[in-house]
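A favour, since you know our C-alpha coordinates better than I do. What I am after is a single protein written out in full by you. Could you add the entry underneath, on a fresh line?


***
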Amino acid sequence: MIEPLGRSRALLGLTETLSRHGVDSKALLAKTGIDFDPADEPERWVPFRAILACYELAAQQSRRPDFGLELAQSRDFAFFGPLNLILKYAPNFETALKEFQRFASVQVSGGYETSLQSSGDTCIYEFFVTESMRPISNQWVEESLLTTVKTARMFLGADYSPRAIYVKHSPISSKKKYVHYFGVAPEFDSEIDGVAFHSSAFKVRNRAEDLDVLGLVTSVLAVQVGWTQGDLASNVRSLIRRSLPTGQFSIEVIADQLCTSRRTLQRQLAQRNLSYEGLLEEVRMMLSAELLEDGNLRLSSIAYHLGFREQSAFNHAFKRWYGVTPGERRRRSRMAKGEGADALATRTHSDQDRSRRGDVNALSRAD
Protein backbone atom coordinates (compact mmCIF):
# COMPACT_ATOMS: atom_id res chain seq x y z
CA MET A 1 0.00 0.00 0.00
CA ILE A 2 1.30 3.47 -0.91
CA GLU A 3 2.71 5.44 2.02
CA PRO A 4 0.59 8.56 2.70
CA LEU A 5 2.67 11.73 2.52
CA GLY A 6 2.36 15.29 3.77
CA ARG A 7 4.21 18.53 3.14
CA SER A 8 6.69 19.35 5.88
CA ARG A 9 5.07 22.79 6.15
CA ALA A 10 2.41 21.03 8.25
CA LEU A 11 5.03 21.24 11.02
CA LEU A 12 5.55 25.00 10.78
CA GLY A 13 5.13 26.57 14.21
CA LEU A 14 6.11 23.34 15.95
CA THR A 15 9.63 24.56 16.79
CA GLU A 16 8.38 27.83 18.29
CA THR A 17 5.72 26.07 20.35
CA LEU A 18 8.19 23.49 21.63
CA SER A 19 10.75 26.14 22.54
CA ARG A 20 8.22 27.77 24.87
CA HIS A 21 8.28 24.52 26.84
CA GLY A 22 12.03 23.94 26.69
CA VAL A 23 11.94 21.02 24.24
CA ASP A 24 14.63 20.45 21.61
CA SER A 25 12.66 20.37 18.36
CA LYS A 26 15.61 19.14 16.28
CA ALA A 27 16.01 16.04 18.44
CA LEU A 28 12.28 15.44 18.43
CA LEU A 29 12.05 15.66 14.64
CA ALA A 30 15.01 13.30 14.28
CA LYS A 31 13.18 10.64 16.29
CA THR A 32 10.48 10.56 13.62
CA GLY A 33 12.96 10.40 10.74
CA ILE A 34 12.83 14.10 9.80
CA ASP A 35 16.46 15.26 9.61
CA PHE A 36 15.89 18.84 8.39
CA ASP A 37 14.17 22.03 9.51
CA PRO A 38 10.66 22.21 7.97
CA ALA A 39 11.00 26.00 7.87
CA ASP A 40 13.91 25.62 5.45
CA GLU A 41 12.16 23.10 3.18
CA PRO A 42 8.40 23.56 3.66
CA GLU A 43 7.52 21.96 0.30
CA ARG A 44 9.34 18.71 1.00
CA TRP A 45 7.21 15.57 1.27
CA VAL A 46 7.54 13.44 4.43
CA PRO A 47 5.59 10.40 5.64
CA PHE A 48 2.23 11.54 7.00
CA ARG A 49 2.63 9.22 9.96
CA ALA A 50 5.86 11.06 10.84
CA ILE A 51 3.86 14.30 11.05
CA LEU A 52 1.35 12.61 13.33
CA ALA A 53 4.18 11.20 15.45
CA CYS A 54 5.74 14.66 15.81
CA TYR A 55 2.50 16.00 17.27
CA GLU A 56 2.21 13.09 19.71
CA LEU A 57 5.85 13.25 20.79
CA ALA A 58 5.60 17.01 21.22
CA ALA A 59 2.69 16.56 23.63
CA GLN A 60 4.60 13.93 25.57
CA GLN A 61 7.91 15.75 25.81
CA SER A 62 6.37 19.15 26.58
CA ARG A 63 4.02 17.50 29.06
CA ARG A 64 1.19 19.44 27.47
CA PRO A 65 -1.78 17.22 26.64
CA ASP A 66 -3.29 20.24 24.86
CA PHE A 67 -0.25 20.69 22.62
CA GLY A 68 -2.19 20.28 19.38
CA LEU A 69 -4.69 22.89 20.51
CA GLU A 70 -1.93 25.28 21.57
CA LEU A 71 -0.21 24.85 18.21
CA ALA A 72 -3.42 25.52 16.29
CA GLN A 73 -4.20 28.59 18.39
CA SER A 74 -0.73 30.14 18.20
CA ARG A 75 0.27 29.72 14.56
CA ASP A 76 -1.07 31.53 11.52
CA PHE A 77 -2.29 29.90 8.32
CA ALA A 78 1.08 29.99 6.57
CA PHE A 79 1.42 26.24 7.12
CA PHE A 80 -1.34 25.81 4.51
CA GLY A 81 0.97 27.14 1.82
CA PRO A 82 -0.94 28.23 -1.30
CA LEU A 83 -4.20 26.95 0.21
CA ASN A 84 -4.00 29.94 2.55
CA LEU A 85 -4.95 32.18 -0.39
CA ILE A 86 -8.26 30.36 -0.67
CA LEU A 87 -9.11 31.47 2.85
CA LYS A 88 -8.14 35.01 2.06
CA TYR A 89 -10.17 35.45 -1.12
CA ALA A 90 -13.07 32.95 -0.92
CA PRO A 91 -16.47 34.68 -0.92
CA ASN A 92 -17.68 32.74 2.11
CA PHE A 93 -16.84 29.95 4.55
CA GLU A 94 -18.64 27.28 2.52
CA THR A 95 -16.60 28.01 -0.59
CA ALA A 96 -13.40 27.97 1.44
CA LEU A 97 -14.12 24.50 2.83
CA LYS A 98 -15.16 23.09 -0.54
CA GLU A 99 -12.05 24.44 -2.26
CA PHE A 100 -9.91 23.01 0.54
CA GLN A 101 -11.45 19.61 -0.10
CA ARG A 102 -10.84 19.98 -3.80
CA PHE A 103 -7.13 20.72 -3.44
CA ALA A 104 -6.25 18.89 -0.21
CA SER A 105 -3.78 16.67 -2.06
CA VAL A 106 -1.51 19.71 -2.51
CA GLN A 107 -0.92 19.49 1.25
CA VAL A 108 -1.43 15.79 2.07
CA SER A 109 -1.43 12.82 -0.28
CA GLY A 110 -3.40 10.07 1.44
CA GLY A 111 -3.73 9.57 5.17
CA TYR A 112 -7.04 11.35 5.64
CA GLU A 113 -10.10 12.67 3.84
CA THR A 114 -12.75 15.25 4.67
CA SER A 115 -16.48 15.40 4.04
CA LEU A 116 -18.99 18.25 4.20
CA GLN A 117 -22.55 17.06 4.74
CA SER A 118 -25.81 18.88 5.52
CA SER A 119 -28.80 17.74 7.57
CA GLY A 120 -31.55 20.26 8.16
CA ASP A 121 -29.99 23.49 9.37
CA THR A 122 -26.74 21.79 10.45
CA CYS A 123 -23.60 21.16 8.39
CA ILE A 124 -20.85 18.84 9.58
CA TYR A 125 -17.25 19.00 8.37
CA GLU A 126 -15.83 15.57 9.13
CA PHE A 127 -12.28 14.19 9.11
CA PHE A 128 -11.62 10.58 8.12
CA VAL A 129 -8.16 9.50 9.28
CA THR A 130 -6.84 6.19 7.95
CA GLU A 131 -7.72 3.49 10.45
CA SER A 132 -4.15 2.32 10.93
CA MET A 133 -3.07 5.88 11.81
CA ARG A 134 -5.98 6.99 14.00
CA PRO A 135 -4.35 5.62 17.22
CA ILE A 136 -1.52 8.16 16.86
CA SER A 137 -3.69 11.01 15.57
CA ASN A 138 -5.23 12.47 18.73
CA GLN A 139 -3.10 15.61 18.77
CA TRP A 140 -3.37 16.11 15.01
CA VAL A 141 -7.15 15.64 15.09
CA GLU A 142 -7.58 18.21 17.86
CA GLU A 143 -5.28 20.63 16.04
CA SER A 144 -7.22 20.13 12.80
CA LEU A 145 -10.60 20.61 14.45
CA LEU A 146 -9.50 23.85 16.09
CA THR A 147 -7.91 25.04 12.84
CA THR A 148 -11.29 24.47 11.17
CA VAL A 149 -12.97 26.58 13.86
CA LYS A 150 -10.29 29.26 13.43
CA THR A 151 -11.04 29.25 9.72
CA ALA A 152 -14.71 29.85 10.49
CA ARG A 153 -13.73 32.72 12.78
CA MET A 154 -11.98 34.43 9.86
CA PHE A 155 -15.38 34.81 8.25
CA LEU A 156 -17.65 34.99 11.32
CA GLY A 157 -15.62 36.84 13.94
CA ALA A 158 -13.14 35.93 16.68
CA ASP A 159 -15.87 35.07 19.20
CA TYR A 160 -17.68 32.57 16.98
CA SER A 161 -18.36 29.12 18.48
CA PRO A 162 -19.52 26.09 16.47
CA ARG A 163 -22.65 24.13 17.24
CA ALA A 164 -20.69 21.06 18.30
CA ILE A 165 -17.29 19.37 18.24
CA TYR A 166 -17.14 15.59 17.82
CA VAL A 167 -14.03 13.59 18.75
CA LYS A 168 -13.51 9.84 18.51
CA HIS A 169 -11.00 9.61 21.34
CA SER A 170 -11.54 10.21 25.06
CA PRO A 171 -10.63 13.58 26.66
CA ILE A 172 -6.88 14.20 27.00
CA SER A 173 -7.22 17.71 28.48
CA SER A 174 -9.59 19.29 30.96
CA LYS A 175 -13.08 20.40 29.94
CA LYS A 176 -12.08 23.96 30.82
CA LYS A 177 -9.24 23.83 28.30
CA TYR A 178 -11.47 22.59 25.51
CA VAL A 179 -14.12 25.23 26.18
CA HIS A 180 -11.39 27.87 26.21
CA TYR A 181 -10.23 26.88 22.72
CA PHE A 182 -13.46 25.82 21.01
CA GLY A 183 -16.06 27.86 22.87
CA VAL A 184 -18.00 24.61 23.48
CA ALA A 185 -17.27 21.32 25.24
CA PRO A 186 -16.55 18.56 22.67
CA GLU A 187 -18.52 15.32 22.55
CA PHE A 188 -15.86 12.66 23.14
CA ASP A 189 -15.88 8.94 22.31
CA SER A 190 -17.99 9.92 19.33
CA GLU A 191 -18.41 7.97 16.11
CA ILE A 192 -16.78 10.75 14.09
CA ASP A 193 -14.13 13.48 14.21
CA GLY A 194 -15.81 16.66 13.04
CA VAL A 195 -17.22 20.14 13.58
CA ALA A 196 -20.92 21.02 13.32
CA PHE A 197 -21.97 24.46 12.11
CA HIS A 198 -25.31 26.17 11.64
CA SER A 199 -25.91 26.31 7.89
CA SER A 200 -26.29 30.10 8.06
CA ALA A 201 -22.60 30.36 9.01
CA PHE A 202 -21.65 29.28 5.49
CA LYS A 203 -23.28 32.24 3.76
CA VAL A 204 -21.69 35.17 5.57
CA ARG A 205 -19.77 37.20 2.98
CA ASN A 206 -16.03 37.70 3.15
CA ARG A 207 -15.29 41.43 2.98
CA ALA A 208 -11.94 40.67 1.32
CA GLU A 209 -13.37 38.34 -1.34
CA ASP A 210 -11.83 38.52 -4.78
CA LEU A 211 -13.18 36.00 -7.26
CA ASP A 212 -10.61 36.92 -9.90
CA VAL A 213 -7.69 36.17 -7.60
CA LEU A 214 -9.43 33.07 -6.26
CA GLY A 215 -9.90 31.82 -9.80
CA LEU A 216 -6.22 32.36 -10.56
CA VAL A 217 -5.17 30.54 -7.39
CA THR A 218 -7.42 27.54 -8.04
CA SER A 219 -6.32 27.30 -11.67
CA VAL A 220 -2.69 27.09 -10.55
CA LEU A 221 -3.58 24.51 -7.88
CA ALA A 222 -5.51 22.48 -10.45
CA VAL A 223 -2.33 22.12 -12.48
CA GLN A 224 -0.41 21.04 -9.37
CA VAL A 225 -2.83 18.23 -8.58
CA GLY A 226 -2.97 17.17 -12.22
CA TRP A 227 -6.52 18.19 -13.07
CA THR A 228 -6.27 19.18 -16.72
CA GLN A 229 -8.91 19.21 -19.40
CA GLY A 230 -6.74 16.96 -21.53
CA ASP A 231 -6.83 14.12 -18.97
CA LEU A 232 -10.43 14.06 -17.81
CA ALA A 233 -10.47 10.34 -17.05
CA SER A 234 -7.48 10.64 -14.69
CA ASN A 235 -9.11 13.61 -12.97
CA VAL A 236 -12.30 11.65 -12.39
CA ARG A 237 -10.40 8.58 -11.17
CA SER A 238 -8.40 10.71 -8.74
CA LEU A 239 -11.52 12.37 -7.33
CA ILE A 240 -13.38 9.07 -7.01
CA ARG A 241 -10.47 7.48 -5.16
CA ARG A 242 -10.26 10.41 -2.76
CA SER A 243 -14.02 10.54 -2.20
CA LEU A 244 -14.82 6.84 -1.72
CA PRO A 245 -14.20 6.72 2.07
CA THR A 246 -16.51 9.71 2.60
CA GLY A 247 -19.47 8.07 0.90
CA GLN A 248 -19.86 11.21 -1.20
CA PHE A 249 -18.77 10.02 -4.64
CA SER A 250 -21.85 10.37 -6.83
CA ILE A 251 -21.39 11.74 -10.32
CA GLU A 252 -23.03 14.97 -9.15
CA VAL A 253 -20.41 15.40 -6.41
CA ILE A 254 -17.51 14.65 -8.76
CA ALA A 255 -18.89 16.99 -11.45
CA ASP A 256 -19.23 19.76 -8.87
CA GLN A 257 -15.58 19.35 -7.85
CA LEU A 258 -14.60 19.61 -11.50
CA CYS A 259 -16.65 22.81 -11.77
CA THR A 260 -19.04 21.33 -14.31
CA SER A 261 -22.49 19.76 -14.45
CA ARG A 262 -23.51 16.13 -14.38
CA ARG A 263 -24.73 16.20 -17.98
CA THR A 264 -21.58 17.90 -19.23
CA LEU A 265 -19.36 15.39 -17.46
CA GLN A 266 -21.39 12.49 -18.83
CA ARG A 267 -21.12 13.91 -22.34
CA GLN A 268 -17.39 14.51 -22.08
CA LEU A 269 -16.79 10.97 -20.84
CA ALA A 270 -19.01 9.51 -23.56
CA GLN A 271 -16.92 11.33 -26.16
CA ARG A 272 -13.97 9.31 -24.84
CA ASN A 273 -16.00 6.05 -24.89
CA LEU A 274 -16.07 6.11 -21.09
CA SER A 275 -18.74 6.28 -18.41
CA TYR A 276 -18.73 7.39 -14.80
CA GLU A 277 -20.00 4.00 -13.65
CA GLY A 278 -17.17 2.28 -15.52
CA LEU A 279 -14.51 4.52 -13.97
CA LEU A 280 -16.00 3.98 -10.51
CA GLU A 281 -15.85 0.22 -11.02
CA GLU A 282 -12.28 0.46 -12.28
CA VAL A 283 -11.08 2.49 -9.31
CA ARG A 284 -12.78 0.20 -6.82
CA MET A 285 -11.35 -2.89 -8.50
CA MET A 286 -7.76 -1.61 -8.53
CA LEU A 287 -7.93 -0.11 -5.03
CA SER A 288 -9.41 -3.27 -3.52
CA ALA A 289 -6.43 -5.33 -4.65
CA GLU A 290 -4.06 -2.67 -3.34
CA LEU A 291 -5.71 -2.51 0.08
CA LEU A 292 -5.76 -6.29 0.43
CA GLU A 293 -1.96 -6.27 0.26
CA ASP A 294 -2.00 -4.65 3.70
CA GLY A 295 -2.57 -7.72 5.83
CA ASN A 296 -3.52 -5.61 8.86
CA LEU A 297 -6.64 -4.07 7.31
CA ARG A 298 -9.90 -5.82 8.17
CA LEU A 299 -12.13 -6.66 5.23
CA SER A 300 -14.86 -4.49 6.73
CA SER A 301 -12.42 -1.55 6.75
CA ILE A 302 -11.53 -2.15 3.12
CA ALA A 303 -15.22 -2.26 2.21
CA TYR A 304 -15.73 1.05 4.00
CA HIS A 305 -12.74 2.61 2.25
CA LEU A 306 -14.19 1.55 -1.10
CA GLY A 307 -17.53 3.19 -0.34
CA PHE A 308 -19.57 0.02 0.22
CA ARG A 309 -22.22 0.23 2.92
CA GLU A 310 -22.08 -3.51 3.59
CA GLN A 311 -19.15 -5.91 3.49
CA SER A 312 -21.37 -8.40 1.66
CA ALA A 313 -21.70 -5.94 -1.24
CA PHE A 314 -17.91 -5.66 -1.37
CA ASN A 315 -17.56 -9.46 -1.32
CA HIS A 316 -19.95 -9.85 -4.26
CA ALA A 317 -18.24 -7.09 -6.27
CA PHE A 318 -14.76 -8.50 -5.58
CA LYS A 319 -15.79 -12.00 -6.68
CA ARG A 320 -17.19 -10.52 -9.89
CA TRP A 321 -13.86 -8.75 -10.52
CA TYR A 322 -11.43 -11.49 -9.57
CA GLY A 323 -13.42 -14.73 -9.45
CA VAL A 324 -12.78 -15.28 -5.72
CA THR A 325 -13.86 -13.62 -2.49
CA PRO A 326 -11.51 -11.05 -0.90
CA GLY A 327 -10.92 -13.44 2.01
CA GLU A 328 -9.85 -16.21 -0.35
CA ARG A 329 -7.64 -13.80 -2.32
CA ARG A 330 -5.89 -12.77 0.92
CA ARG A 331 -5.42 -16.38 2.02
CA ARG A 332 -3.88 -17.32 -1.32
CA SER A 333 -1.57 -14.33 -1.17
CA ARG A 334 -0.38 -15.31 2.29
CA MET A 335 0.15 -18.90 1.25
CA ALA A 336 2.20 -17.73 -1.70
CA LYS A 337 4.38 -15.77 0.68
CA GLY A 338 4.90 -18.85 2.85
CA GLU A 339 3.24 -17.46 5.95
CA GLY A 340 1.87 -20.08 8.34
CA ALA A 341 -1.42 -19.57 10.12
CA ASP A 342 0.18 -19.39 13.56
CA ALA A 343 2.72 -16.81 12.43
CA LEU A 344 0.00 -14.76 10.81
CA ALA A 345 -2.18 -14.78 13.92
CA THR A 346 0.74 -13.81 16.12
CA ARG A 347 1.75 -10.98 13.79
CA THR A 348 -1.79 -9.64 13.47
CA HIS A 349 -2.44 -9.57 17.21
CA SER A 350 0.97 -8.01 17.82
CA ASP A 351 0.31 -5.28 15.28
CA GLN A 352 -3.12 -4.55 16.73
CA ASP A 353 -1.73 -4.28 20.25
CA ARG A 354 1.01 -1.93 19.07
CA SER A 355 -1.57 0.23 17.31
CA ARG A 356 -3.72 0.47 20.42
CA ARG A 357 -0.77 1.48 22.56
CA GLY A 358 0.04 4.27 20.16
CA ASP A 359 3.67 3.26 19.83
CA VAL A 360 4.67 6.54 18.28
CA ASN A 361 8.32 5.80 17.80
CA ALA A 362 7.72 2.52 15.99
CA LEU A 363 4.98 3.88 13.71
CA SER A 364 6.89 7.04 12.85
CA ARG A 365 9.85 5.33 11.22
CA ALA A 366 9.97 5.81 7.49
CA ASP A 367 10.22 2.43 5.77
